[in-house]
Amino acid sequence: MQYIEQLLFVIVLVVALYFFIKKIKQIRRNIFLGKDETINNQKAERWKVMAKVALGQSKMVVRPIAGFFHILIYIGFILINIEVLEILIDGVAGTHRSLSFLGSIYNTAIGFFEILALLVFIACIVFLARRFIVRIPRFHSPEMKGWATKDATYILVIEIVLMVALLKMNAVDQLLQARGADHYIAAGSFPVSQYLTGFFSNYDTSTLIVFERVFWWFHILGILFFLNYVHYSKHLHIFLAFPNTWYSRLSP
Residue-wise over 58-68: b if at least 16 C-beta within 10 A, else e? Predict the structure, then answer.
């Protein structure tokens, strides 16, 4: 059964990467339809602009509340997905928490990721509330109707679902570790998901293993879906903001 799951994971991963790379090539082809232009002057200034605008999110902090929560989502989502490296290793090799050999570093990282996951979850809820409950006027202007609103909503909901799946996976994992289930070694620090274990504590071990696998698959499939959806979203700037700002014009 384990080998079947590994094979299925590899197939899913290859298919997702195939469509991701295919779309990247299409975007690259479209960019190269433009005229050639050599841009390599004032490199120090270009690195400064990229660090300020793309990394520092300087345009977002003009609006303090929106900027604060936007940065939480941006930094949180990027850093949390470092954990994807471990998921990829586990999926291909059929292991569980393969990076736990890092010991205290691993425990600290998992705990940090959980706190970020909670902050991302809260930020997404705030953004949805600003759109549909507070109804901030600029979100309901004519140019924001249709796809613009749907796209933003899809992204927020996807991030909420991914964060919930991650925390639930860790919650179930803790119970399996405590019960000494096969392959579930004691590893990780869980400052947030420890409060979710009560929802699953009454289930037997075999059911918990199923839950853990479901949440694990849901999380990685969600990430691979997001990887391919983002090409059709305004949130493609997550990938392109850095080269776009580096090559931007330095003079008005």
Answer: eebeeeeebee
Q: How far apart are CA 123 and CA 101, in angstroms?
A: 32
How buried is 166 (Cβ within 10 angstroms: 0-12 exposed, 13-18 middle, 19+ buried)? Answer: buried
Q: Which residues contact 175 (CB under 8 A, 6 or more apart)?
A: 197, 200, 201, 208
Each residue's pLDDT tens digit, 54-88: 777 777 767 777 777 777 777 777 777 778 888 99
What is the 8-class DSSP label of residue 35?
A: P
**Distance (Å, whole) CA 17 – CA 141:** 37
DSSP 103: T
Out of 1-10, 11-20, 125-134, 142-151, the most confident range is 11-20
Question: In whole angstroms, what is the distance from residue 130 CA to residue 175 CA?
Answer: 37
Burial 93-126 (b: 16+ CB within 10 A, else e): eeebbbbbeeeeebeebbbebbebbbbbbbbbeb
Name the residue among 164, 193, 156 with its Cα closest to residue 176. Answer: 193
Where are the domains positioned within the chain? 62-246
168: phi then psi, degrees, rounded to nearest 5:
-70, -40
Contacts of 206 (CB under 8 A, 6+ apart): none
pTM for this prediction: 0.84
